[in-house]
Design a protein that fits this description.
Blueprint: H1 2-25, H2 55-58, E1 100-101, E2 107-108, H3 113-120, H4 122-130, E3 136-138, E4 144-146, H5 149-152
Helix pairs in contact: 3-4
């Protein structure tokens, strides 16, 4: 009897070890790949008039990586997007200003700016891809058209300005038909 009990315990232990080994050997879920199935249909980004292509002015300029207030050109841009840690060349490509770049240095066209935004704003990127954040039109199971992040957010100052709250609606007066 003791021998059967020991054999049963051994079989249970082996089964348990095999099941936990299978669970442990499975790779943890990977974070979303910003390159997989990326290209989306979207209107061109909202460039300021006469400002693109950037290489018209920047082609012969040496990149200046010094964090500073711009005074000669682009003086209308105030960086309020993690300004303590960020600088223009964290997103804009230093060698070819007609492109943005990812943290790994890969160049990204302005039409794919969502890839740059998605590096830091993963939850918003995921929601945008799913059609929960931002504007998307099209078929739920077919072609879709998206708006890019800069269509709604200024990439240099992405927060929306606070809205002034409106007064609560007044309840209808007794006896009124409305």
């Amino acid at each position: 009897m003791a021998r059967s009990f020991a054999l049963a315990c051994a079989l249970v232990a082996l089964g348990w070890m095999a099941s936990t080994a299978a669970v442990v050997s499975q790779a943890p879920p990977r974070p979303p790949d910003l390159r997989q199935d990326l290209r989306v249909e979207a209107p061109p980004p909202p460039f300021s008039d006469g400002i693109f292509p950037c290489s018209n002015c920047h082609a012969e300029m040496q990149p200046d990586r010094t964090r500073r207030v711009l005074v000669a050109m682009h003086d209308d841009i105030q960086l309020k997007h993690d300004e303590e840690h960020r600088w223009c060349l964290d997103c804009h490509d230093a060698e070819n200003r007609d492109f943005l770049h990812l943290a790994n240095g890969e160049r990204v066209a302005f039409e794919e700016s969502y890839r740059v935004c998605g590096q830091c704003h993963g939850e918003k990127y995921r929601d945008w891809r799913a059609g929960v954040h931002g504007r998307r039109v099209g078929a739920w199971n077919g072609e879709k058209s998206y708006l890019l992040c800069p269509h709604c957010h200024n990439p240099h100052q992405p927060r929306f300005k606070a809205l002034q709250p409106k007064p609560a609606p007044k309840p209808p007066r007794a006896g009124s038909r409305h």
